[in-house]
Amino acid sequence: MPANLPPTYYEAEKRFREARTVQEKTEILEEMLTIMPKHKGTDKLRADLRRRIARLKEEAQQKKGGARRETYTIEKEGAAQVAVVGPPNVGKSSLVASLTNARPEVAEFPHSTWKPTPGMAPFENIQVQLVDTPPISREFMDTWMSDLMRRADILLVLLDIHSDPLHGLEETMALLAELRIFPRGFPTPPDLKKSPIFKTILVAVNKVDGAKDEEDYRAFLELSEIPLTCIPISVKAGYNLDLLLKEFFRLSDIIRVYTRAPGKEPNRRAPFVLPRDSTLEDLASKVHKDFVSKLKFAKIWGKAVFDGQMVQKDHILMDGDVVELHL
Is pLDDT above 70 for 35? Predict the structure, then answer.
């Protein structure tokens, strides 16, 4: 099938041959990728352009730091760290910019993100850390990406309803499997030579902006038979972004607990965040290292107890509990 490239593509190709800097060449290749029509006749050419862009970006990074390869470590902040991953140009940067205080580069062309960009997304009275990442694809993936994904609490696989989400999901999950990263609770290949890394994985399909997109999304669910939690969203319209934040909280498997002094109200704007099934002793150690040995008992208010119930150190706390520690 012929490529049928428009004249503007050949004009950009001419400018590329005349370009002198790595940055200028990269920008022109990205422009060519945007201009190029999407059909079977351009598949190989698109893949070749992506490879050339990846090589130029890698070359630029090596020039900045000599022969040493760039590595990135994002320290965890907030209640949970969510790494936003997926194919090129699905809206990862736009999602992080929409939900957080971060300002990653947002562009219409793919591969605009070169390094991870963290931001804090508020949910009720806690913060969730979202990390924008470069795209993962067969053509190129930064070597430090595997470590970042393995360290994150949750992986959000973001897809585009307009760009073959079924293929995007299959390729992304296959790439994760090659890195020994699997959804929590899923079976692993019997010939796996090293231990698997199980992660909590959530899928979101972006750009679901109307009735036709909703219909396509339902078809995607039927075809993929996806066993993971999947949410249709629209960053542009703000559709289901609140639901996405709720899922982050649910999948984080954490609880919020409040403390109070006798006769005073708790500060509900600053909860202690603990893993689910944490005990009173766990809370005491987080409040202060000396509280565990000094703690005699506590009074608790919550859904699973009566108001002011006296509990011991092994009492399991629930989300929303208010605790009054007595030393």
Answer: yes
